[in-house]
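tool=predict chain=A
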Amino acid sequence: MSAFAGQGPVAARLADGRRLHLQHGPIDLIIEADGRPEEVRAAYEQAKSAFQTVLADLVDELALLRSRVSEHSPQPRGVVARRMERAVLPFAAEHFITPMAAVAGSVADHVKNSMLENRTLDRAYVNNGGDISMFLRKDRSFDIGVCSDPRTGEQASRVHIQADDGVGGVATSGWRGRSYSFGIADAVTALARNAAVADAAATLIANAVDLPGSVLIARSPASELSPDSDLGDRLVTTNVQPLSDEKISLALDCGSAAAESMRDRGLIISAFLSLQGRIRTISQPGRPTPALKNMTAALESADA
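tool=predict ok
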């Protein structure tokens, strides 16, 4: 990340004229807002302004942000950095986690919140490489694709999210994605009250989808794959051979237990877990959110 700090951010409307593209080094955002044209224009200017210093501020505190979080950790100074720490701290007592586990979602939340200041919008989203922060007015909704394989971008379903579902962020993680994983999930998508928490939760649920010690899984120290990784010498997954149905179920059981614990603590609203063509959904017992009802219906239809 530090190698990009000296290059300035770039902002441009995409060819469709509706969406805004913000890019600075490794941070690449696609933004869209709906509302009166003057409100959308002002929101986009606010997004540009908020984005100007994001990368530089993160680089200034990178050593701290790559360190394991605990309740005794020094508090970061930057706005996005503090958001990252707040997102991961509820998970820190039970898991190894650093603020970097929530970086993509936190950047998305920061830019989206900046867009909303003193603005009247119908809908807005900030998509940071698949980790999405969103806003919905009371009578509005979004349809979000749920990815089952980051290699191909294949969607297992589309989820209909309404304002009263309480979903403010969606994030996806897995060993095939952009970041390293301790687990073997092809993809885990978490829905939460904001993108920062969804980002951290998806990372940890994906870590939990695992078969520890299995000879069918290849792992390497993260530091060998990326010398500056916040995971250090911890082993991350580099390959997963075809698994039997029994082993897939066992690994998904482990991930489901982690997701259910987060749901019961109010950290996530729902989750979707994918491993070698098998899927698992987690929702409130006996009272799934409307978003998850639609997800489940789409998956059942696909399996029929």
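Confidence is low (pLDDT under 50) at residues 299-304. Residues 1-137 form one domain.
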